[in-house]
Request: fold
Amino acid sequence: MTTDVSVRNNVRILGNSAGPVVMLGHGFGCDQGMWRRLLPFFTDDYRVIVFDHVGAGESDKAAYTTAKYGSLDGYVQDVLEICSALDLREVSFVGHSVSAMMGVAAVAEAPERFANLILLASSPSYMDRPEDGYTGGFSARDIDELLDSLDANYVVWSAAMAPMIMGNPENPELTDELEGSFCRLDPTVARGFADVSFRSDVRGLLKDVGIPSLILQCSDDLLAPPHIGAYTRDQMPDATLVQLRATGHLPHVSAPAETAEAILAYLSRNQS
Reply:
Protein backbone atom coordinates (compact mmCIF):
# COMPACT_ATOMS: atom_id res chain seq x y z
CA MET A 1 0.00 0.00 0.00
CA THR A 2 1.39 3.38 -1.01
CA THR A 3 1.48 6.49 1.16
CA ASP A 4 1.72 8.77 -1.91
CA VAL A 5 -1.74 10.29 -2.42
CA SER A 6 -1.06 10.82 -6.12
CA VAL A 7 -0.48 7.10 -6.54
CA ARG A 8 -3.15 6.00 -4.09
CA ASN A 9 -5.85 7.94 -5.94
CA ASN A 10 -4.26 7.79 -9.41
CA VAL A 11 -4.25 11.58 -9.60
CA ARG A 12 -3.68 13.13 -13.03
CA ILE A 13 -3.20 16.81 -13.83
CA LEU A 14 -4.35 17.81 -17.30
CA GLY A 15 -4.82 20.91 -19.40
CA ASN A 16 -3.56 24.45 -18.91
CA SER A 17 -1.11 24.56 -16.00
CA ALA A 18 -1.72 28.30 -15.60
CA GLY A 19 -5.50 28.09 -15.68
CA PRO A 20 -8.07 28.02 -12.88
CA VAL A 21 -8.38 24.64 -11.19
CA VAL A 22 -11.29 22.29 -11.90
CA MET A 23 -11.38 19.04 -9.93
CA LEU A 24 -13.63 16.21 -11.12
CA GLY A 25 -14.96 13.58 -8.70
CA HIS A 26 -16.61 10.48 -10.18
CA GLY A 27 -19.64 8.59 -8.89
CA PHE A 28 -20.33 5.06 -7.72
CA GLY A 29 -19.21 2.25 -10.00
CA CYS A 30 -17.18 4.60 -12.20
CA ASP A 31 -13.65 5.92 -12.42
CA GLN A 32 -11.98 9.01 -13.88
CA GLY A 33 -12.35 7.59 -17.39
CA MET A 34 -16.04 8.50 -17.30
CA TRP A 35 -15.01 12.16 -17.59
CA ARG A 36 -13.18 11.70 -20.89
CA ARG A 37 -15.98 13.14 -23.03
CA LEU A 38 -16.07 16.27 -20.87
CA LEU A 39 -12.33 16.92 -20.72
CA PRO A 40 -11.88 18.49 -24.19
CA PHE A 41 -14.22 21.33 -23.20
CA PHE A 42 -11.96 22.29 -20.28
CA THR A 43 -8.34 21.46 -20.98
CA ASP A 44 -7.55 24.49 -23.15
CA ASP A 45 -8.33 26.98 -20.40
CA TYR A 46 -8.39 25.07 -17.13
CA ARG A 47 -6.00 23.04 -15.02
CA VAL A 48 -8.03 19.86 -14.59
CA ILE A 49 -7.50 17.40 -11.74
CA VAL A 50 -8.93 13.91 -12.15
CA PHE A 51 -8.57 10.99 -9.76
CA ASP A 52 -9.97 7.59 -8.84
CA HIS A 53 -11.63 6.93 -5.52
CA VAL A 54 -9.78 4.19 -3.67
CA GLY A 55 -10.98 0.84 -4.94
CA ALA A 56 -11.88 2.20 -8.39
CA GLY A 57 -9.97 2.53 -11.65
CA GLU A 58 -6.19 2.52 -11.26
CA SER A 59 -6.21 3.52 -7.60
CA ASP A 60 -4.16 1.57 -5.06
CA LYS A 61 -6.61 -1.25 -4.28
CA ALA A 62 -4.55 -2.27 -1.24
CA ALA A 63 -5.40 1.07 0.36
CA TYR A 64 -9.06 0.13 0.65
CA THR A 65 -10.21 -0.67 4.19
CA THR A 66 -13.72 -0.72 5.59
CA ALA A 67 -12.43 1.16 8.63
CA LYS A 68 -11.70 4.20 6.46
CA TYR A 69 -14.08 3.82 3.55
CA GLY A 70 -17.07 2.54 5.47
CA SER A 71 -18.26 6.12 5.74
CA LEU A 72 -18.33 9.16 3.49
CA ASP A 73 -15.65 10.85 5.59
CA GLY A 74 -12.87 8.55 4.32
CA TYR A 75 -13.51 9.69 0.76
CA VAL A 76 -13.84 13.34 1.83
CA GLN A 77 -10.46 13.21 3.54
CA ASP A 78 -8.93 11.84 0.33
CA VAL A 79 -10.29 14.81 -1.62
CA LEU A 80 -8.86 17.23 0.93
CA GLU A 81 -5.54 15.37 1.01
CA ILE A 82 -5.24 15.65 -2.78
CA CYS A 83 -5.91 19.39 -2.50
CA SER A 84 -3.29 19.72 0.22
CA ALA A 85 -0.66 17.61 -1.56
CA LEU A 86 -1.01 19.67 -4.74
CA ASP A 87 -1.49 22.92 -2.80
CA LEU A 88 -4.72 23.59 -4.68
CA ARG A 89 -6.60 26.83 -4.03
CA GLU A 90 -9.68 28.39 -5.58
CA VAL A 91 -10.79 24.94 -6.73
CA SER A 92 -14.00 24.49 -8.68
CA PHE A 93 -15.07 21.03 -7.55
CA VAL A 94 -17.39 19.09 -9.85
CA GLY A 95 -18.90 16.14 -8.03
CA HIS A 96 -21.05 13.58 -9.80
CA SER A 97 -23.65 11.74 -7.72
CA VAL A 98 -22.10 10.61 -4.42
CA SER A 99 -19.02 12.75 -5.15
CA ALA A 100 -21.31 15.76 -4.91
CA MET A 101 -21.97 14.71 -1.30
CA MET A 102 -18.21 14.55 -0.81
CA GLY A 103 -17.88 18.02 -2.30
CA VAL A 104 -20.45 19.43 0.12
CA ALA A 105 -18.63 17.90 3.08
CA ALA A 106 -15.18 18.97 1.82
CA VAL A 107 -16.26 22.58 1.28
CA ALA A 108 -17.92 22.68 4.70
CA GLU A 109 -14.71 21.40 6.33
CA ALA A 110 -12.11 23.36 4.33
CA PRO A 111 -13.78 26.31 2.55
CA GLU A 112 -10.43 28.03 2.01
CA ARG A 113 -9.58 25.47 -0.68
CA PHE A 114 -12.62 26.03 -2.88
CA ALA A 115 -14.09 28.72 -5.12
CA ASN A 116 -17.11 26.96 -6.65
CA LEU A 117 -19.04 23.76 -6.11
CA ILE A 118 -20.85 22.03 -8.97
CA LEU A 119 -23.29 19.30 -7.97
CA LEU A 120 -23.96 17.05 -10.95
CA ALA A 121 -26.97 14.69 -10.78
CA SER A 122 -26.74 14.92 -7.03
CA SER A 123 -28.79 14.22 -3.94
CA PRO A 124 -27.94 15.13 -0.34
CA SER A 125 -29.68 11.92 0.79
CA TYR A 126 -30.94 9.17 -1.47
CA MET A 127 -32.80 7.60 1.44
CA ASP A 128 -36.12 8.85 2.77
CA ARG A 129 -35.94 10.35 6.25
CA PRO A 130 -39.44 9.87 7.71
CA GLU A 131 -38.42 11.46 11.00
CA ASP A 132 -38.40 14.90 9.36
CA GLY A 133 -40.57 14.33 6.28
CA TYR A 134 -37.75 14.28 3.72
CA THR A 135 -38.30 12.16 0.60
CA GLY A 136 -35.08 11.05 -1.03
CA GLY A 137 -36.74 8.53 -3.30
CA PHE A 138 -35.66 5.28 -1.63
CA SER A 139 -36.98 3.83 1.61
CA ALA A 140 -34.64 2.08 4.04
CA ARG A 141 -36.22 -1.19 2.89
CA ASP A 142 -35.58 -0.32 -0.77
CA ILE A 143 -31.91 0.18 -0.02
CA ASP A 144 -31.68 -3.02 2.03
CA GLU A 145 -33.16 -4.95 -0.91
CA LEU A 146 -30.85 -3.23 -3.39
CA LEU A 147 -27.79 -4.15 -1.34
CA ASP A 148 -29.05 -7.70 -0.78
CA SER A 149 -29.37 -8.16 -4.54
CA LEU A 150 -25.86 -6.81 -5.01
CA ASP A 151 -24.58 -9.33 -2.47
CA ALA A 152 -26.43 -12.19 -4.16
CA ASN A 153 -24.89 -11.72 -7.61
CA TYR A 154 -22.96 -8.57 -8.44
CA VAL A 155 -22.71 -9.31 -12.16
CA VAL A 156 -26.49 -9.78 -12.46
CA TRP A 157 -27.04 -6.68 -10.32
CA SER A 158 -24.77 -4.63 -12.60
CA ALA A 159 -26.63 -5.80 -15.72
CA ALA A 160 -29.98 -4.88 -14.16
CA MET A 161 -28.96 -1.51 -12.70
CA ALA A 162 -26.84 -0.08 -15.53
CA PRO A 163 -29.75 0.62 -17.94
CA MET A 164 -31.87 2.17 -15.19
CA ILE A 165 -29.06 4.45 -14.03
CA MET A 166 -27.84 5.43 -17.49
CA GLY A 167 -31.39 6.07 -18.67
CA ASN A 168 -30.65 6.42 -22.39
CA PRO A 169 -32.10 3.27 -24.01
CA GLU A 170 -31.61 4.72 -27.50
CA ASN A 171 -27.84 4.57 -26.88
CA PRO A 172 -27.23 1.02 -25.63
CA GLU A 173 -23.47 1.43 -25.99
CA LEU A 174 -23.58 3.88 -23.05
CA THR A 175 -25.36 1.31 -20.90
CA ASP A 176 -22.78 -1.28 -21.91
CA GLU A 177 -20.00 1.09 -20.90
CA LEU A 178 -21.52 1.69 -17.48
CA GLU A 179 -22.15 -2.02 -16.91
CA GLY A 180 -18.53 -2.73 -17.83
CA SER A 181 -17.39 -0.07 -15.38
CA PHE A 182 -19.49 -1.64 -12.62
CA CYS A 183 -18.04 -5.05 -13.35
CA ARG A 184 -14.44 -3.81 -13.08
CA LEU A 185 -15.08 -2.87 -9.45
CA ASP A 186 -14.30 -5.53 -6.87
CA PRO A 187 -17.65 -6.74 -5.45
CA THR A 188 -16.51 -6.13 -1.87
CA VAL A 189 -15.57 -2.55 -2.68
CA ALA A 190 -18.76 -2.11 -4.68
CA ARG A 191 -20.85 -3.28 -1.72
CA GLY A 192 -19.13 -0.87 0.65
CA PHE A 193 -19.26 2.07 -1.73
CA ALA A 194 -22.94 1.41 -2.52
CA ASP A 195 -23.75 1.37 1.19
CA VAL A 196 -21.96 4.69 1.68
CA SER A 197 -23.59 6.20 -1.42
CA PHE A 198 -27.16 5.28 -0.58
CA ARG A 199 -27.11 5.73 3.20
CA SER A 200 -25.12 8.96 3.56
CA ASP A 201 -26.90 12.18 4.50
CA VAL A 202 -25.25 15.59 4.03
CA ARG A 203 -28.42 17.67 4.32
CA GLY A 204 -27.19 19.20 7.55
CA LEU A 205 -24.06 20.51 5.82
CA LEU A 206 -25.79 22.30 2.93
CA LYS A 207 -26.21 25.48 4.98
CA ASP A 208 -22.44 25.52 5.60
CA VAL A 209 -21.49 25.71 1.91
CA GLY A 210 -20.72 29.41 1.70
CA ILE A 211 -19.30 29.46 -1.82
CA PRO A 212 -21.21 29.82 -5.12
CA SER A 213 -22.74 26.49 -6.06
CA LEU A 214 -24.35 25.14 -9.23
CA ILE A 215 -26.87 22.30 -9.10
CA LEU A 216 -27.26 20.54 -12.44
CA GLN A 217 -30.50 18.58 -12.45
CA CYS A 218 -31.08 15.92 -15.09
CA SER A 219 -34.37 15.07 -16.71
CA ASP A 220 -35.97 11.73 -15.83
CA ASP A 221 -33.23 10.77 -13.36
CA LEU A 222 -34.13 7.67 -11.36
CA LEU A 223 -31.72 8.55 -8.54
CA ALA A 224 -32.30 12.31 -8.27
CA PRO A 225 -35.90 13.26 -9.12
CA PRO A 226 -36.83 16.93 -9.77
CA HIS A 227 -37.79 17.87 -6.22
CA ILE A 228 -34.29 16.99 -5.01
CA GLY A 229 -32.67 19.78 -7.01
CA ALA A 230 -35.12 22.35 -5.65
CA TYR A 231 -34.64 21.10 -2.10
CA THR A 232 -30.86 21.30 -2.38
CA ARG A 233 -30.98 24.82 -3.83
CA ASP A 234 -33.27 26.04 -1.08
CA GLN A 235 -30.99 24.71 1.66
CA MET A 236 -27.80 26.37 0.36
CA PRO A 237 -26.83 30.03 0.86
CA ASP A 238 -25.67 30.75 -2.71
CA ALA A 239 -26.95 28.09 -5.09
CA THR A 240 -28.21 28.15 -8.67
CA LEU A 241 -30.34 25.35 -10.08
CA VAL A 242 -30.13 24.53 -13.80
CA GLN A 243 -32.35 21.94 -15.44
CA LEU A 244 -30.56 20.02 -18.18
CA ARG A 245 -32.31 18.47 -21.16
CA ALA A 246 -30.09 15.42 -20.64
CA THR A 247 -31.86 12.35 -19.33
CA GLY A 248 -30.59 9.73 -16.93
CA HIS A 249 -28.01 9.98 -14.16
CA LEU A 250 -24.76 10.49 -16.11
CA PRO A 251 -25.15 13.62 -18.26
CA HIS A 252 -21.37 13.97 -18.66
CA VAL A 253 -21.53 10.66 -20.53
CA SER A 254 -24.83 10.98 -22.40
CA ALA A 255 -24.76 14.77 -23.04
CA PRO A 256 -21.21 16.04 -22.51
CA ALA A 257 -21.59 19.21 -24.60
CA GLU A 258 -24.69 20.40 -22.76
CA THR A 259 -23.16 19.52 -19.41
CA ALA A 260 -19.88 21.29 -20.16
CA GLU A 261 -21.60 24.38 -21.52
CA ALA A 262 -23.68 24.74 -18.35
CA ILE A 263 -20.61 24.41 -16.11
CA LEU A 264 -18.45 26.74 -18.21
CA ALA A 265 -21.17 29.40 -18.39
CA TYR A 266 -21.49 29.32 -14.62
CA LEU A 267 -17.74 29.46 -14.00
CA SER A 268 -17.38 32.30 -16.48
CA ARG A 269 -19.95 34.38 -14.61
CA ASN A 270 -18.30 33.69 -11.26
CA GLN A 271 -14.77 34.42 -12.47
CA SER A 272 -15.55 37.72 -14.17
User: Anything to note?
Assistant: The mean pLDDT is 96. The beta strands are 12-15, 21-25, 47-50, 91-96, 114-120, 213-219, 239-247.
